[in-house]
Amino acid sequence: MNLMFTEEQEEFRSVLAGFFGNKSPESEVRRLMETHDGYDASLWHQMGESLGLQGLAIPEEFGGSGFTLFEVNLVLEEMGKVLVCAPYFSTVVLAANVLLQCADQSAKQSYLPGIATGETTATLAFTDDTGRWDADGISATARESEAGWSINGISSFVLDGHTAQLVLVAARTATGVSLFAVPAGAEGMTRTLLSTLDLTRKQARLEFRDTPATLIGTEGQGWPVLEKVLDLAVVGLAAEQVGGAQRVLEMAVQYAKDRIQYGRPIGSFQSVKHKCSDMLLEVESARSAAYYGAWCTSEMVDELPEVAALSKAYCSETYLNAATDNIQIHGGIGFTWEHPAHLYFRRAKSSELLFGNPTRWRELFAERIGL
Prior knowledge:
It contains eleven helices and nine strands. The chain is α+β, with helices and mostly antiparallel strands. Helix 7 runs antiparallel to helix 8 (270-299).
């Protein structure tokens, strides 16, 4: 195992930092979060056509670049630093991984090329209104008739579900949890944009009423695929959280240097020094966890489930703590709408709960190591 970046990866990170820093300034983030779609279609196509970001981990035979999820996690880290508003996580980390993990060559050939080029936005829908991110949270049902498969039920908290051109739905059949593909505009599917804490990442509630669907993979074998995809997703989320935590740390330290009180920078006061030092320690520890998790996803090692659980739990808490401390160090201005601190706090809190809170993932870790 080598967690050192190669020269090419360092150059890649530099290009990403420059690109997203230029394309996603705070003013653009604020503009997009007030729109219905929540992202800029031209930027999305530029990410696909110019940089090939959507197809990084998709095999070349399906139109991708054939890299690994490690490179995808580098993209997520840089996106997290500037709160890029784009359906990248839902399309690349969730939907594409579902297709890659299921043994359905026809589905891969049908959907992955469009995702790889950026022509198709996609998402995964499986938990219902209870917000349970396990098999018990899947309540939608599917039945087969002479006309084909149809879905009934609810899927909630679907990332970018209101705009996705392809929705991969987990539903229960007579043999268990199965996976289905539903195109945008399918008959009987109603999509409602949810009001959420994080304005930079849209979520939707989908209702299915005899909605036509196409079975993906083997009937009744959907949960093992979803369980693997969730592990890959939380590692990707951990990388994004580290990027955000790094940014709020930089904001706090810079403000501590610039803000003068009693004739001296507030960063010279012991309490502020200690808070910044604690932030740095936690962020660097979270970075180590996220990078190790990213390596595990690229190599698909056996310990991925355990590492994924720890990465999600630790990085979630680190980001939220860092975002909270950033507001505290900024004082009164940190509580205002005009300051970006609250945008990172909202993303941190939302990400902490996405796919389950840290307590749930620690419980999963204990189960996975046999405790």
